[in-house]
Amino acid sequence: MRLFERALARADVPVRRSGGFNPRPRVSLPLPRSVGIASRDELLIVELSAPMGCDAAIERLARQLPADIRLNSAMALSERSTCLPLAASYSLPIEPDEAPDLAKRVGEFMAGGAANVSRHVHKSGRERTIDVRTFVTEARVDDRRLHWTQTITQNGTAKPAEVLTALGIDPGERMHRIERASVEYDVSPSSPQPT
Length: 195
Known about the structure:
The structure is a single chain. The protein folds into two domains: 2-79, no CATH class; 85-183. It is of the alpha+beta class. The protein contains five helices and nine strands. It starts with a helix and ends in a 5-residue tail after the last strand. The protein is elongated and about 55 Å long. The strands form three sheets. Strands 2-9-4-8-7 form a five-stranded mixed beta sheet. The chain has a two-stranded antiparallel sheet with strand order 1-3. A two-stranded antiparallel ribbon has the order 5-6. 22% of the residues lie in helices and 31% in strands.
């Protein structure tokens, strides 16, 4: 967030600021990632204080970002628009020799019933049981990667670490190698005019 806040300031994009004694840029990520997970697909929402065309905004901002961050597209939203995440796809690099056994476990996971894992709830300090299988809609293994897609609902979703646990993979050893490949959003209603 700091990187984008600074880049937006350098690009002279008219970002709306919050009120109060410590005004902050009105910038948000609808689906933040867990620490350590890389991503190829992020949605950044920037509220503007003055109209600006999408092409101009993306061109100015791109010039202020590091070379390895690429802006794919921009669209204008109305003030009442919502951007709700519906599903996210992840991948994890694997060794070729572990692919056959993992593919078998993935097949059993997808064909089976509940796949319960325990989630520690920080606020209450209690453990909660999560059925990971209810959220995973697709999972497969190729020679080099484990791929899966999971839904995101109003009742929540599974954490990537919980999916790994349900598949018999130690998340402590692999979490830092997970990559979020894509996210599907329900964006509505959109405005035809840049704002």
